[in-house]
Design a protein that fits this description.
By secondary structure, this protein is an alpha/beta fold. It folds into two domains: 281 residues, TIM Barrel, CATH 3.20.20; 68 residues, no CATH class.
Length: 360
Amino acid sequence: MASSIGKQSPVIVQFSYNSNIKIGGDPKTIWAPEGARYTSNAVVNGAKANADWIAMEAEAWDANYVAISLDHFKVPKFKPGASYKSCATPIDYAGLVEETRDYMKARGLDAIADACDDAAIKEYTAYLTSSEYQGFRADFMETVRIMDPAWGMIDTEGIPYVLDFAVSRDFANGVRIGLGNSHMMMEAELGATGTSGDGIGYEPMRGAALEEFANLAAAFVDYTGAEGMAYDIGMKHAAKADERHPADEEKLEVVQRTIIEQTGIYAAYAQHGGTGAAEVAKGLVGKTNVNTAFLVAGSCARAEHFGADMGKVHAGDKKICGTDVETHVYLKALYESCVERYETTGSYQTGDLVAKFLAQ
């Protein structure tokens, strides 16, 4: 609704791996009675349901600039020294890891490349050929096929750099070559951007360390084909209502400029933890994620609605217990929060500009 008003406003509606699983009904992620049997693929079920729902809403409200994004599709955790159940695959993953190491060596990233010895290659290959990784990869590819997103994020959250490069390239190849999809923007994560509720402190990166990271980021984009980037700039996931975190704009400027200079690619920066962002660095941030802001706005509205007369709730008064709490109270709160967030990005009522661009 917010996207359809006036000149219209572009919006990306995000669906994470976990949200698709929950909507798909996986009993490990929702409450289910003991003895209930679940025999389907929850990721695929959720992808189908969410894709149909967002398409229906966009058509019903004549919202022309609504796109789907896959957010935080987090690869299985890499555990050094772990034993993995192997899975048959036509891809030469040992060759991919060796190729990745050689590429990094050629880019002058010697310290990282040298740390990837034969033992590390063996461990990385075992991980990449594991049934856990291959199952996740298959789920992601099927989700892309079903939902046809404009943007897709592979969350590699802090795995070793050589493995990060290899995983990101593997997924990019799966989308571009395996699915023949050339239009979805691939977002890849370099290092750890944090997860919900993290309280990890942020240390600004400057001087030689920043230059080294910027060169690493440029190599990452060049090798993986990433068109969107995520790396730590001091945000915090699921920030509380009174928290505001300033973005490390110097790091953003240096890294994004280096990527463009070395690759000729504008890899849009994805700001995770946007709910607690003190500001949106326009021109540097390509997408800001504000999932938590909407959850909190809706939950607060519900709480105030029920809290106004808990006696009637417990007495079973249909007026206060009915669907109005969802269709009026919750929905209105989300709409207002959405408009507020639109205005901070400068994208509110810019549909006419989007139309001109698409007409070129």
